[in-house]
Amino acid sequence: MKHRSTASLLFCLLLLSACDDSSGAKQKYSFVNISTCASHACAIDINTFAITCFGNCESSGACDVPPIPVKSFSVGDFSTCLIRQDDSSILCVGGMAAFTPPTGTFNQIATADDNFACALRSDNTLACWGDEYEGRTQPPAGTFYGLDCGPFHCCAIATDTRTVSCWGSNDYGQSSPPSGEFMAVTVGQATTCGLRMTEYATGTATCWGSDFQGIDLAPSGYWAELSMGSGGGCVFDRGSMGHLDCWGYPDIATIPDDIDISQISAIDVGGGTAGTSVCVVNGPGTVQCWGSGTRYWEIPR
């Protein structure tokens, strides 16, 4: 599971050369990034920089986001949190609306639950709020980037050393990262994965924490993007034809035949009490999802 920031949209823009479907009908949305969990997902439209949410969220209010430009957004079970583009302040709907977010200006936000969240301030220091559980709302001091949260712990990368720091639950060693420099980190329920720095623009994947159903066994190779959810993860390398590999629970690891890997511009793996979910954004700006949690989702186009 990953937070989503509009700062990462430049590559996605290059893929949006066509916004018509095969029938010639004009698409209403041109999505470029997505955040997903077991209950719902939200995607950002490049035309408005507003997010559209969909899934099983009628009763929770997690899809009731205002149509405003955002600079970062993240979804959790029964919650959606965002950072407004105009004043860089935080807004949460759904379960997280019960908690007052910190004041100030922020760049990134991450949540995977309905009762806590963390964010990176404009000075790259960390702030967390909500229900305290095993230290998940007590981040370390210092400056960081690449923040991500699961239901019980969070991780981020130190700006000076590029090493990973984690806080919160550590029952399976998920908050005890290996040494070394990282370019990205992503957090599941009890497993954490990261992309190690290499001499290339891509990184090698490594995971730590729970090994249930092999969810800590990241594939070898060099990857541009990595996302971890509660039941497994996916790695992606754009390359000339694209290369996607997913592992963990069968409904995450089994990639549908109609997914055009060469067109993927963004991917996110979610999961939680309601099931598992994987969503991708394709080059033309459309969204495809799979996993047990997405079975009844009506995905907008």
Portion of residues within helices? under 10%
Rg from Cα: 17 Å
In DSSP terms, counting alpha (H) and pi (I) runs of 4 or more, how many helices?
Answer: 2
Strand content: 35-45%
Strands of the widest sheet, in order across it, are 1-5-6-7
- What is the strand tally? 22
Poorly predicted regions are 9-23
CATH topology: Methylamine Dehydrogenase, Chain H
Shape, per Cα inertia axes: globular
The CATH homologous superfamily name equals Regulator of chromosome condensation 1/beta-lactamase-inhibitor protein II
- Please, what is the average pLDDT? 90
Describe this structure in words.
This protein has one domain (4-8, 30-290): Methylamine Dehydrogenase, Chain H, CATH 2.130.10.30. The protein is 3% helix and 42% strand. It has helices spanning 10-14, 250-253; strands at 4-5, 31-36, 40-45, 51-55, 70-76, 79-84, 90-94, 106-110, 116-121, 126-130, 144-149, 153-158, 164-168, 182-187, 191-196, 204-209, 225-228, 232-237, 243-248, 264-272, 275-282, 287-290. Strands 1-5-6-7 form a four-stranded antiparallel β-sheet, with no helix packed on it. The chain has a three-stranded antiparallel β-sheet with strand order 2-3-4, with no helix packed on it. Mean pLDDT is 90; it is low at 9-23.
